[in-house]
Amino acid sequence: MIRPGDMMRQLNQMNFKVQLAGHRRKEADWKHEPYTHRFNSIWLIAKGKATYVIDGVAHAAEPGKLFVMAPGMVVQRWTEDSQPIEFYFVRFGYALSYEEEGRWVAGAESAERLLLSGAYTIQNPLPLLHACEQISELMKQRGQLVLMRQRILLLELLTLIIADLRSQIVTGHTNTVIEKTIDYMVNHYDKDISLDDLADIAGLSPSHYSRLFKKYAGSTPVHYLTQLRMDRAKELLTLSDYRMKAIAQSIGYSDELYFSRMFKKMVGTSPKEYARTHKASP
């Protein structure tokens, strides 16, 4: 997978120009037969639903879906039977143009294909829709200042796209490290586990880890670990004749009385009462 950082690095070496932009609505019975796309274009779905097939791969075109098209892509599109579709489009050209070590490097228009191309799902499409709308409105005006504003807005649009994709990767990484600590708790709940231990596994500070964990799991790490231990204790109390001290130690508590207090706090009844009312019949 191409990283957003590589995309941004390439975009910083390009000079862009808006060629055409606008808003389109296609009715429910619309169908565009396969064709070879000839321009660099951005399509951002605003409303409705359709199917876009890009180079043989079908994509659901719905609000929040972004398509960055390059010349040579083979495209087929059609709307769903029950609803039309609305989308913004921005057609643009670009040329290589950047400064490196005091020397300017330049190339012909469309010298290389952009790394930012294909179909993407945007988490926060509203800023992108606003930028597309502004670019479309500027197409109705003329003048050098308008051309500059168009170019600035196109750069803002491209920046918003990269920032959204980068945010998705950060979120995905965060979810991965949180799940890693959950797996650790599930497999080591019988050990002495502290908040600092879990934060170290995640590679985060304890306070930052706690905030992210609560956002992801809906509870604090300590509460989650305690719940795991109590669920296991309930199983042991129901299915075994273990002594209370042995059960406490098997789920990570060296103090039987502390375990009893935590159990009653979490479950609402004492371990002995729970065992008496829930123990399975022989």
UniProtKB/TrEMBL annotation:
Which Pfam families does this chain map to?
AraC_binding, HTH_18
May I ask which residue range the UniProt record assigns to the signal sequence? none
Q: Which domain of life is it from?
A: Bacteria
Record-linked SMART domains: HTH_ARAC (SM00342)
Keyword check for Disulfide bond = no
The record ties this protein, via InterPro entries, to: AraC-bd (IPR003313), Homeodomain-like_sf (IPR009057), HTH-like (IPR037923), HTH_AraC (IPR018060), HTH_AraC-typ_CS (IPR018062), RmlC-like_jellyroll (IPR014710), Tscrpt_reg_AraC-type_HTH (IPR020449)
What keywords would UniProt list here? DNA-binding, Transcription, Transcription regulation
Domain HTH araC/xylS-type residues, every copy: 179-277
Q: Provide any one GO MF term from the record.
A: DNA-binding transcription factor activity
This chain's protein is named AraC family transcriptional regulator
